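Appendix B. Raw example, untouched.
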Amino acid sequence: MTERSFHTPYDGSSKLFTIGVKPLDPADWIDVDDNLLAYLDEKDRLAERVHDKIFVAEPDTQAAQREVLTLLADHLSQRFPDIYQRLGPQIDIIPAFRRVRLDTPYPPLLVAGGLLQEDLVLMRRGENGWRLAAAHLCFPSSWRLHEKFGQALQEIHTPVPDFGRDTRNAAIIERMFDNLRPEQPIIRWN
């Protein structure tokens, strides 16, 4: 595992409570540290005990879920070959002694979430703006997945001061999502 600290959102180099987006080098999309095994174990524990509270998906999100799984499987095995070994339709997570099948009947985003420490959330544009369409979420910060599932960004952020529906900040976030491009990934620390 690595000891480097790539993801340090609270190191003082960024203003607190800002939208805080900047371009992301795709090579640094996902990071792995010494806590990988603990996070994977906790995700497994939650999946066994409260599966319906950590995974949701609209029925027509399968293609997007598969895209995320494919991107992650390729990235992880190329970026961290000492940790992730791709063997056809499976990935071995070497330090965890785990084998993850990529071709299971389980939802692809659920499988993808079992590969890494991070939570995964898919947003989709609809009539009311960008909404939470699918997620594998084990470590939310002061919210519950079933409460936010299907909601638009402005509704999701209603409890956040100055970020609810029809606020300037909500409009900025909506515009930011509208301007995202697959060829230029971004990272956001807030």
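End of appendix B.
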